[in-house]
Amino acid sequence: MASRRPWLARHSSKFVMKCLFRPLFGWRDSEQHGLEYFSFIGRDMSRLEAARKLAKGVPAKGVVLLCHPFLKFGMSYFFKNSYHEKLNQAGYHVVSFNFKGFGSSTVESMNFADDVASIVDWARHTYPDLPLHFWGVSFGAFHGMHAIGSGRARFDSALFDSAPVSLVHFFGKGALGLVMRSLSRSRWGHLTGTHDVFQSFPLPAELPRLYMFGADDAFITSHELHRLQELVGHDCIRRFANCGHLEIRKTYQDEYFGQALAFLDQHSRTKPSLTLA
C-alpha cells in the first residue's frame, strides 16, 4: 500500500537520484511496440510507467514480469529485443515497467526494490489466478532479489540474467561508483536498497530459481559466484562461455530463450501459485 513520506525525505531523494543518474533518467521511446501503456502509484508514492501485452493463446500460462537493466532505455530494452513477442507466442502475458526516474516514472524515494514490490501488487490484483514469474536482467535482477528475499514480493519462479550481487564493481570508479559503494556499505544500505543481495538471503526455499551468467561477466567475482552457488545451489546456475555482462542473449539467442521458456513452462504447471506476504 502506498504511503506518503515526509516532505524532506521525498525531496532529498529526488535531488540525490537526479544528480546521480541524470544521464539515464527521462529517456522516451518513440515506438509503441504494440503494447498497452499505463501508470500506477507505487508503495513509496512514485508514479511508475508500465506496459503490458497479452498472450496470443487463451488461456494464458502465466504472467512474466520483466525488470530492466541499468540502461537509459529502461523497459524498452525488452521490447527492442523482442522479449514480449517471444513470451506472447509461448502463451504468457508480459508486464514490464520503468524503475523510478527511468522514462516517465517519477522519484519519491531511493529504494528500487519497492518498485518491484509495487508492480507485483498490481499484477497479483490484476491476474489473481495466474502464476507470476520474475525475469530480471542485471540491475533489475539485483533489485528483484532484494524484493523477493525481504518478503516484499512473491513469485512462482524467478529467472536472473547477469545478476550482480553487490554494487562494489557495478558502477565503476567515477563519482557515481564512489557514492553507490559508500551507500551500500553504510547504515543507509538497507534504506536505499544498495546493500549486497546476500543480506536479503535466503530466498524462499520453495521458490524455483534460475541464474544465467556469462563466463566473462566482470560484475561478479569468482568468490561472489561461489558464495551464490552455496546459497542457491549449483544446479540453479548456468554459465555461458565466451560472453560477458548482458551478452548471453546476443551470443546464444536461441539457447537463451529456449532455456528460459522451458524453465517458465515447467513452473507454470505448479498450482496453486504463491501469494503476496
Automatic annotation (TrEMBL):
Stretches assigned to the AB hydrolase-1 domain: 63-166
Coiled coil regions, renumbered to chain: none
Keywords attached to this entry: Hydrolase
Record InterPro entries: AB_hydrolase_1, AB_hydrolase_fold
Domain of life the protein comes from: Bacteria
GO molecular function, one term: hydrolase activity
Record protein name field: Alpha/beta fold hydrolase
Organism expressing this protein natively: Undibacterium cyanobacteriorum
